[in-house]
Amino acid sequence: MCSRAWVTVTFVCLILVALRVHASGGPGNRAEKKKTPDQVAAKPAGDISSPIREKWETKKFGKTEEAAKGLATNDARDWLDNYLAEQQPPLRWRPDVDYLQKNHMLKFSDAKTIEVGKEDEKEEFQEVTLTLEVTNKNYSDMLEQDRKLRDDERKAVAKDRQTLLGKLLAGLLAGLVAVAGYLRLDEATKGYYTTWLRVASVALVATIGAGVWLLL
Hints:
alpha+beta
């Protein structure tokens, strides 16, 4: 009778753990799989024969030419981030300044001196014009970078799940060992210490169960 009771308790614990794992998956794991940006046909902007997909321009001025270029670069990155986020589906990968410079996407004009302020309080600044060009080749490469990012994220999720599964199995194994130990000790002592053994085993199983629950 005791063995049957413990087996029942074990199965109940397994069911609770399974329910916990299922609930921890959340709606994200049950959501319909969507196509990644590189699986969607790219629709070139403007003339298909042109290598330029998108072009954006801004003017900025600063006390120095480098300061003006820095402000223009920040604006260009913001525009490009918004542009990538508006794709269907959106790209999650974002290029940094090194990427933009390496791929020759930033084109600065020569700096020119301008005067800003009231007639009697004019100050000289350096003004530059920045043109950001996104070619079809650039866009294809950014799609590839986005695909790699998504692959890395999927691998990280898979690794976390494997680690979680290992911890879960270790906890269940420890629980079964505790149950088996209780049954063997109870049989060896001919039931004289049943109450104490039951209390100890229940406490051990509860501790293991709590640990597994927290790990989930």
